[in-house]
Amino acid sequence: MPDRKPPTIGVRENGPLVARNIASMRDGEGRDIATKPIMALCRCGHSANKPFCDGTHNKIGFDSRPGTPAGPDRLFEYAGREVTVTYNARLCSHAARCAALAPQVFDPAQKPWVQPDKGSPGEIRAVVAACPSGALALAGPQHLFAERAEITVEKHGPYWVEGPQVEAPPPGKGATAGKVVLCRCGLSGNKPYCDGSHREAGWKDGS
Ligand code: SF4
Ligand code: FES
Question: How close is the Cα of 100 to the center of ligand 1, in Å?
Answer without folding.
Answer: 10
